[in-house]
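Before a colleague's protein record goes any further, I have to sign it off. I want your independent view on whether this chain really folds as the tokens say. The record follows directly below this note.
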Amino acid sequence: MTRRTRLAVLAMVAVLPPRWKPTVYRRLFGYRIAADVRIGLTLIDAAECDIGAHTVIGHGNLFIDVGRLLIGDHVRIGALNVVRGGEEVRLGRYVTVMRRNELNSIVGADPVNPNDPRLVVGAGTVITDGHRLDFTDRIELGERVIIGGRNSSLWTHNRQRTAPIVVGSRTYIGSESRLAPGSCLPARSIVALGSVVSGTLTGDESLIGGVPARVLRPLDDHDRYLVDRPTRDDLPEEL
């Protein structure tokens, strides 16, 4: 079918009752969706789609022009999120994407360097409210990362060049933080609100802050409790 016809059919599927959608998506588009997945008023446009069991996707979400959309089991996606473009978007098990987040890869980008337009979100990670992640080049979030508060931005490109972003497992990123292309954060760290990260910061279990951001001090026992606390009540022990 043509692109316009496909989007029209997907829009009609979006308004079906949630219990019917997995079956319709499987039959019409070849998506692999577990039978107990619940999908609200949401449009899912992907060349390939695989959604694991016990996943819930709320209302007003838009997945558009995604190459491979891979969503693990027990994932929770809230309302009014936009996921656009990219060769692959991979949300691991028990990931939570709350509301009003924009996860975008520029469609048809033509940087002067090789790029890898993929978003890889580790198991148990939480993306809260109103954040913007540009994965025109690769963004990789480790397990149990929290992008907390509101309005943080992770950018992998400038006008002509791209560079990937890597965030280590169990790192917490506070509100209004900015990660520039090529940023790399260590595991089990806390990024203070309003920080601007550029380049590679080293040293696990660090408090990071400032403009530009730098390592301020090692984490104390109180800080370690915050990064080690499970991100969800139902998180399995192995995560």
About this structure: The domain at 3-228 is CATH 2.160.10.10 (UDP N-Acetylglucosamine Acyltransferase; domain 1). The first helix runs from residue 3 to 14.
